[in-house]
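Exercise 7. Given the components listed, write out the predicted structure of the assembled complex. Treat all entries as one system.
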Amino acid sequence: MKHVQPARISYFFGKGYTDLKNTIKDAWKLNVREIKNQAEKVSFEGFFSIKGFTAAMALLCILIFGSLITAMTTVFHTIILSIFFVIIYILFGIIWLVDRIYILAHRISNACPNPDCQAHFLIPAYICPNCHRVHTRLVPGRYGILKRRCLCGEKLPTTFLNGRSKLQAYCPVCGSSLTGDTGSRQYAIPIIGGPDVGKTCLINMGVKTLLQDVAPQSGWDLSFMSESDKAEYFSVVQGMLKGVRPMKTDKDALTAYQLMLNLPNDKIGRRIYIYDISGEMFSNSGDIQRNKAFSYADGFIFLIDPLTIPDFSMKVSDKVNFDSYGASSKDFDDIFDVMLNNLQIMFNMKPEDVMKKNLAVVINKCDIPTLNEQIGPAAAESYMAANPDCKSEGDAENELVRSFLEENGEGNFVRTAEARFRNVRYFACSALGHNKEGVTFQGYGTEAPFLWILEEIDPKIRATVR
Ligand SMILES: Nc1nc2c(ncn2[C@@H]2O[C@H](COP(=O)(O)OP(=O)(O)OP(=O)(O)O)[C@@H](O)[C@H]2O)c(=O)[nH]1
Ligand SMILES: [Mg+2]
Ligand SMILES: [Zn+2]
Ligand SMILES: [Zn+2]
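Answer.
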């Protein structure tokens, strides 16, 4: 049978019917037996004897009235039980619907943290806390309405309203374990960019600022969901504090930091996955298709190494030692094209269709000479002073970076990005702050693109950010 669960089928979906069938069968059996008894008496005593005639009359009575009464009780019994079953079914339907409405209203979903799987699903597989049997479809159904009884006897809740999210959960596709509250929203943010543009630096510095500054200021409860992520993050950040750059990301590694965010104004949690993909993966277009998270991503961060902008790199070629900035070797336009083509295939879209996703375009390494004056915080302040309409430093930065790209021969990129994505915003940051080995790396602007993507998709996050 399809989706057999290690649980006992509820009375109203299984045994209830058998019981009804048996009761009816027994009543008719009794009726038939009585008729047979009387018939035997008639043939034994003879129809014309007193006893035989009485038996024949009794037979006639049973045949007419007995059968009538049995038929009536059968109908009555069936109607009463059917009404009862219908009520139970309606109740089951309502509870199933309430659970689905709760999931939809709170936009709850889950994604597999295993980078080789990245499956996206509403309800994970849950295990029985007592016997560890796997329940792949722990929803209201024939095994139970609000609760089901596992084969071991343990009662398991079947909805998010009565505690399903508290059970240990697994990915229904690959079996990887899921940590954190599975009754939460799921946000996926992949960071895209060529080799050495600074993705790993940006993610670690961005997460550091989110954890250390944004979370306490905004009343957020933000933490790593997995111990291994936490250990990886601490080792990278400790290194950066000592002026040690992070290791290059392995070509085949698809890693994700998983963070759990609880807001002060909402009981529904947010699971945030930030994907770090090696820049080399974009050199072979097919590899990108492995990133299922692209298809359900809530926004992309496209990171640019300014030294890969030909016009800009020419302007600073006599002032800058490219190697000391870990200059990327790949043209950022090519990487962007690979990303667009893959998204197009994933969403089955035409080249002119608009992607319903937000895109943060981020210029990194703003510690490179001349950049700070053009697109850094000081430039943003001057822009605001000169343009009173501009309301925030972020808006100023957005305008400055956009113009910078256009002025440096990347107008085509700007137009394509704005034509293909729902919303594009431009950012400038420095993930390391400088290029001196052994001196504490202190970035700036690294959290802004993450915050923008989260705020764009979640008004409750926007309402809390300070
Ligand atoms: N000066 C300066 N250098 C940076 C900055 N961010 C990154 N870098 C340099 O760029 C190098 C690559 O950074 P990573 O974060 O490893 O780059 P990545 O994009 O993760 O690269 P892959 O993992 O190979 O795809 C670093 O080792 C630094 O040398 C920055 O803000 N300023
Ligand atoms: Mg990396
Ligand atoms: Zn069990
Ligand atoms: Zn999985």
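Discussion: Residues 128, 130-131, 133, 150, 152, 154 surround zinc ion (ligand 3) (CB under 6 Å). Residues 110-178 form one domain.
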